[in-house]
Amino acid sequence: MQFDYTHTYATTPDKVVDLMRTEEFIDDVATHAGAVSHTVEVGPEKTLLAMKLPVPESLAKFVGATISLEMTFRFQPPAADGSVTGTVDVDVAGLPVDVAARALLTPTGGTTVAHYAGTLTVKIPLVGRKVEKQVEPFIRDAFGGLERRAAAWLAR
User: Fold this and answer.
1) Are the C-beta atoms of 46 and 74 separated by less than 8 Å?
2) Per residue in 106-149, pLDDT tens?
3) 28 φ, ψ to 5°?
4) How many domains does the chain have?
5) Residues 56-81: pLDDT tens digits?
6) Contact at 8 Å (CB) between 15 and 23?
């Protein structure tokens, strides 16, 4: 299943990347996502957020009461025009779910338009497509949480 999300951040692309590499910010994202538990690792090559989240009742019959999700963010240095490319990968532990997105952060006169496009694949025979449709809002909410928390942090 293809997905395409667009976010707007009230700062430049390099500052968005700085925020995504701030442990306290990523910790805040997990807390506001309702994580039962989480860990954050920030390094020069990537930012990793691993969290255990409660799942909607509609998915519980497939995956149980909680789901272990890892989001890995990788960003390249800014290009000459100030844009930044990167990737966001989501791994769901113990499940045949793969989420891979390309990120493009584009400066737009003092703000940044972030475009995340990629694929969500659930490799379960016979019910994979049905589960993809149920998982997609969960993944959209995870991406949306980044935008909401960034707006709060940037407004400080």
Assistant:
1) yes
2) 999 889 999 999 988 877 777 667 777 777 777 788 788 889 99
3) -65, -40
4) 1
5) 777 677 667 888 889 999 999 999 99
6) no
For residues 71 and 51, what is the distance between their CA atoms, to the nearest angstrom?
Answer: 9
Q: Which among 75, 95, 80 is positioned nearest to 146, based on CA atoms?
A: 75
98 by DSSP, 3-state: which?
Answer: strand
Residues 13, 83 contacting (CB under 8 angstroms): yes
Question: Which domain does 70 fall in, by range?
Answer: 2-154
Residue for token digits 């293809």?
2
Q: How far apart are CA 118 and CA 11, in angstroms?
A: 24
Q: What is the pLDDT of residues 44-61, one digit of tens each?
A: 899 999 999 887 777 677
- Amino acid at position 53, single letter: L
The CATH code of the domain that includes 60 is: 3.30.530.20
